[in-house]
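User: Can you fold this complex?
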Amino acid sequence: MKKKIAVLASAAMLTLAATSSMAQFAKGEDAIKYRESAMALIGSHFGRMAPVAKKEVPYNAEQIKANVAVLSVLAQLPWAGFAPGSEGGESKDDVWLDPEGFKQAEDDFLAAMDKLTVAADSGDFDAFRVAFGNTGKSCKSCHDAYRKEK
Amino acid sequence: MKKKIAVLASAAMLTLAATSSMAQFAKGEDAIKYRESAMALIGSHFGRMAPVAKKEVPYNAEQIKANVAVLSVLAQLPWAGFAPGSEGGESKDDVWLDPEGFKQAEDDFLAAMDKLTVAADSGDFDAFRVAFGNTGKSCKSCHDAYRKEK
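Assistant: Here's the predicted assembly.
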């Protein structure tokens, strides 16, 4: 049986900012768990497309489109978790010491994700491949600067 | 600056089944991390509405609607993570010993989520409150049966 994702959101654009005011974390560790959970899901949904981009697995336009739709929602989530007082986990202190740089990295990633969405919706493999690569670069650039080495 | 959730998904309904065939986990621990990350996010986005349902915080219809839209996407995710050979983590073995019962619990939760989405979209507080309570019951029922005690 197929499960359906009711990404109805009939107005098509919802401001996540509207939910942020509810997104209070009682403890710093709650914020850490939240952002690291979101990053783990982003990593999974992004990474599973790598074999397609590398032409190791055939390109299925509908599959990629559906996965990118999920990813575009997940991509919005981690940021609220970098709350003041929630230093630690996998994050370098630079997240809080350099908030402007971190915000720029977030914006760059979200801009890359927007282009990935457009490319995935187009159904064109080369457009997808390029946008996928650029999004991956924005991930790596931010991780290099703001994530502890594993 | 407001961040926008591009829950475009213009066809309104996407089959997540389409992405499942990509959702192979290389190792059991990857599946465990995936499903527990999804559950953590679901817990956060669900739990943050509890003070509203309890009338401790004013009802903001747009805020609830946006949050439920995110939750409706997250709600689809954990299930692929209960893959064969990924026993462990917070899951009781009953997930794999009683697959029909577990599937029924998943279906009950998703049906409750559908009703919560309708209620949130309606903007009616009492409809939201009832649907929120029923969804919470479906969470608890499944956790009681299939999640290890913490």
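Residues 27-146 of chain B form a domain with the Four Helix Bundle (Hemerythrin (Met), subunit A) fold (CATH 1.20.120.10). The CA atoms of residues 57 and 109 of chain B lie 25 Å apart.
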